Amino acid sequence: xxxxxxxxxxxxxxxxxxxxxxxxxxxxxxxxxxxxxxxxxxxxxxxxxxxxxxxxxxxxxxxxxxxxxxxxxxxxxxxxxxxxxxxxxxxxxxxxxxxxxxxxxxxxxxxxxxxxxxxxxxxxxxxxxxxxxxxxxxxxxxxxxxxxxxxxxxxxxxxxxxxxxxxxxxxxxxxxxxxxxxxxxxxxxxxxxxxxxxxxxxxxxxxxxxxxxxxxxxxxxxxxxxxxxxxxx
Length: 233
What we know:
Blueprint: H1 8-41, H2 44-75, H3 79-115, H4 126-146, H5 149-179, H6 184-216, H7 225-231
Helix pairs in contact: 1-2, 1-3, 1-4, 2-3, 3-6, 4-5, 4-6, 5-6
């Protein structure tokens, strides 16, 4: 992932912290899969596993942040190295927030199970958006490991698919609520879940933007797709 430096120890430190980010990413991916399984199967044990993992995710995020602070203080990196370390810090924070979203899904699933509601509503249709969001995160982590700007650009474009799935699901829930007001409470629960899934896609998009920042030194947040493509040429 990183370029070679005169100090092999510095290279080792950069590779070590990068590996920790990938480890955190794998842990968060597992959280998402467990959360979606808990939702689709109404499995309280799967939801519990998601919430148990949250503690480890939070602890690892803190550990990586401390390691980054130590590297910056000792090495005083500049240019691309500094961009890399800043981007790793932001990526770690986004991964921790993805874990938060998975945890929200798990907690809501537990609430739905306890209330006995929502089984008649289209919760299974959330699978499409969940698969898209999970796939986007996986692609973002792989692209981050390789600093692949072409893959990053593809992620930025694909995030629109998740937004469209979310909008379509919201319209369907509104129809359910209008046809049967008794479904309003359960529909709002599902809306909460759908929003959490959409946010996972947003965090994957953020990671893709960090990749472009590392390689090109360009902050492409709030930038049009045409401008981003121009920056990558």
